[in-house]
Write a structure and sequence with these properties.
This protein has eight helices and nine strands. It starts with a strand and ends with a helix. The relative contact order is 0.17.
Length: 253
Amino acid sequence: MKVWCAIGDSFTYLNDHLDETGYRLHKGYITRTVEKLTPLLGEISVINHGINGAITQDFLNMRFEPADFYTILLGTNDWFRAIYPAGSQSDFDQERQGTIVGNLATIIRHIREVSPCPIFVLNPVERSEFIYILDHGHVDHGSYEAAGGQELKDVARAIYTCVHGDKVYPVDLHGLSGFTPENAVHFQRKRVGGKETDLPYPRYLNVPYDPGKDDYPYPEEAANMTYDGLHPSDKGSDILAGILAKAIASKVR
């Protein structure tokens, strides 16, 4: 049996907490990746270290279990909360904490303390306006705006280009998956002139929304790559799983 240790934020956490998606998600990217890999690698056991809302700093002091391979999917919350700059190649090489890639270097070092096995480092995908399905008043802007002077695409590029090494493999989810603010959802349903109207991106962005009076703007039929503007839907999760399974299958035996 192969053991996979998955490190990440809500994308990873929600795989094992489908109730927190309102069951809009039926199978997360981890489960789907396992299904794709099992015919190639045999049975796979997953250690899920996903933390809802996690940033890279949350894992700096964590000690990890031995595993046959590891994945790290972080960065979107560091970007949105504008806590750390993306960093440079020297930040990664010198393990300079206080940058996203420097923090990832520390996480990788802790993994290396218990295992020499492959580590796959994934970068974040694009996002639209996030409206939390469990708290309709929680609204965050998408990657169509910068955060802290950084574009999400620049954070994704830094992770993909800087984070590499002996059996450390970057995986360009951002470039390969096709997530965009335009296709994250089909529409938002908002009240326009007293009538509920399905508005595509970007028309929905500046239309007022009152969570105390209005219905959740993302009904089930609005889902496309995501179900809430941020978190992958079944469709989005399957795309991510296909990319990840291909990368893992090429390096893990």
